[in-house]
Amino acid sequence: MQHYWLIKSEPSSFSWEEQVKNNIEPWTGVRNYQARNNLSSMKKGDLALFYHSVTEKSIVGVVEVVREAYPDPTSDDERWVCVDVQARGAFNEPISLAQIKADECLSELALLKQSRLSVAPVAKKDFDYLTKLGKWQKKF
Questions:
Q1: Is the pLDDT of residue 30 over 80?
Q2: Mean pLDDT across the chain, nearest whole number?
Q3: Is the dihedral of CA 19, 23, 29, 33 positive or negative?
Q4: CA nearest neighbour of 50 among 7, 110, 109
Q5: Long-range contacts made by residues 8-14, C-beta under 8 angstroms, separation at least 24?
Q6: Surface-to-core class of residue 78, CB atoms within 10 Å of its CB (0-12 exposed, 13-18 middle, 19+ buried)
Q7: From CA 126, how far away is CA 132, in angstroms rounded?
C-alpha cells in the first residue's frame, strides 16, 4: 500500500533544483526522533511532497522513495537513518504556506499541526488535492 509524505528542506541547504539535477538523492540530516520514525516507515514507491522551508515556505514538487531506510552516512550515530528519493516532477504552481493555511480542506495537514516536523505523513486525499492544486507535472 502506497503512503504519502511531506519532506522539508531549506533551499539554501538543498533545493528542489538540486534534487532535479541529482535525480536520486539520499534524504540525510534528519535529527528529530519523530521525523526519523517517519523516514523508517517509508517504503519504496511512496511519494513525498517536497517543501521549501524557511525562506520560500512552499510545496514545489514531488519525489518518490526509491530506497528504504538505511544508516545516515552524515552521522556516526546508528540511530539516524535516511532514504533515497527521486524527483518525480515539479509543481507548475508552487503552493505557499499561506495558501495552505487559508484552505479549510487542509486544516488537518501535519505541516500545520506540527510545523517543525521535517518529515511528516500526508493523507492520500490531501496529497491528491495538493498535487492537483499545484498542477504537478508528473514524471515517471
A1: yes
A2: 97
A3: positive
A4: 7
A5: 8/51, 8/52, 8/53, 8/118, 8/119, 9/50, 9/51, 9/52, 9/53, 10/52, 10/53, 10/54, 10/55, 11/52, 11/54, 11/55, 11/56, 12/54, 12/55
A6: exposed
A7: 10
Q: Give the residue among 119, 121, 51, 55 at the shortest CA–CA distance from 91.
A: 51
Beta bridge partners, 85, equal: 25, 65
Q: What does the pLDDT look like over 80-117, one tens digit per residue?
A: 999 999 999 999 999 999 999 999 999 999 999 999 99
What CATH number labels 4-133?
3.10.590.10
Q: What is the pLDDT of residue 96?
A: 98
140: pLDDT strictly greater than 80 = no
Distance in angstroms (rounded) separating the CA atoms of residues 18 and 113: 28
All residues at 6 or more sequence positions from 55 whose CB lies less than 8 Å from its CB, including other chains: 10, 11, 12
pLDDT value of position 113: 94
Model confidence band, residue 139 (pLDDT cutoffs 50, 70, 90): confident
Cβ proximity of 60 and 50 under 8 Å: yes
